[in-house]
Amino acid sequence: MIANITDVKTFWDSNPCQSNLSDKKDRKEYYKEITYKRYHGREWHVPIVAKFKEFKYRDVLEIGCGFATDGLEFAKNGARYVGIDLTPKAIELAKERFELFNVKGTFINVNAEETLPFPDNSFDHIYSFGVIMASPHPEYIVEQMYRVLRPGGTFTVMLYNRSSINYYIEIMFLRKLFRRILYPKCMPRLLSKVTGFDEWKLNEHRRIMREKGKLTKEEWISINTDGPLCPLMKVYNRREAAELFKKFNDVKQDIWEFNSEHWSFIGKMIPTKVERAIGRIWGWHRMIYGKKPT
Question: Mean pLDDT across the stretch 215-236?
Fold first, then answer.
């Protein structure tokens, strides 16, 4: 059974994406550390694909802003920034972040599957990083993107990549091959010590497997992307992504991000240059770019 939008909202409201990247008590330092880890870790490519500096004096909409790590960069570089998010918690944190850094932005709590509270042709650029694939109806969001984007306006969207090492080798092969190892009660703790994976995640996978038994393909993908409690997540190959954005012109795609942290001690031995090269071919982040016809 595919999760509904309420399930998605409840999960992400309780688990704002990347909010666990810092535990600093000072709120300004908390956000600074998250920004640093995002752009100097495995998502080093985000400033390259987002092109924060290219939208000065332009109207930019971010769909699924979270607590606006990327949104702050657009606004700091002179964009007239609007961030929308499904969850009240994300909007609360995004507002706090902008206020702490004395940066202007507008934030609205809204379900992007429904009619967005903007007139037609309102924005020069739309940005959405790893969000719409968590929607039960991403095609509805894309329709709204088309409506509110100005003729000639551009978009940048990240979706999870089906044609990746993470999907075919890790999620659909290795995790399925070894999932029954989790049945003994002692195994989550043991595997955590050996692999470095979070023990609580392994315990949740064990619980789900014991309680639900056989999972649908959609359920399996969802619990193996953004944690075992994630209610819904989708992956896209080149053809599927092109189909989703078929109304737009000049649609281009490229691939980024191989997470070596998922590969325990093997991943630690992979040189950074090799890791990045792998990411450009079989990475987890499928970037899609395009523009609305004039």
Answer: 95
Range with the lowest mean pLDDT among 6-10, 39-43, 245-249?
39-43
In a 3-state reduction of DSSP, which class is residue 160? strand
pLDDT value of position 160: 98
Asked if pLDDT for residue 262 goes beyond 90, the answer is: no
SS3 101: coil
The answer as to CATH 3.40.190.10 being correct for domain 5-161+235-291 is no
Q: Which amino acid is at 96?
A: E
Q: How far apart are CA 187 and CA 195, in angstroms?
A: 12
Angstrom distance (rounded) from CA 94 to CA 100:
10
Question: Dihedral of CA 281/215/128/71: which sign?
Answer: negative
- What backbone phi and psi angles, to 5 degrees, belong to 184? -65, 140
What are the domain boundaries of the chain? 5-161+235-291, 165-223
> Which residues, listed in sequence order, are joined to residue 161 by a DSSP beta bridge?
236
CA 97, distance to chain mean position in Å, is 19
Residue 1 has pLDDT above 60, yes or no: no
The answer to pTM > 0.85 is: yes
Burial of 203 (0-12, 13-18, 19+ CB in 10 A): middle
Distance from C-alpha of 259 to C-alpha of 281, rounded to nearest angstrom: 13
Q: For residues 35, 41, 45 and 48, what is the CA-based torsion angle, rounded to 10 degrees?
A: 40
Q: What is the pLDDT of residues 143-198, one digit of tens each?
A: 999 999 999 999 999 999 999 999 999 999 999 988 889 989 999 999 888 877 88
- What secondary structure does DSSP assign to 10-49, as a single string? HHHHHS-TTGGG---SSHHHHHHHHHHHHHHSTTTTHHHH
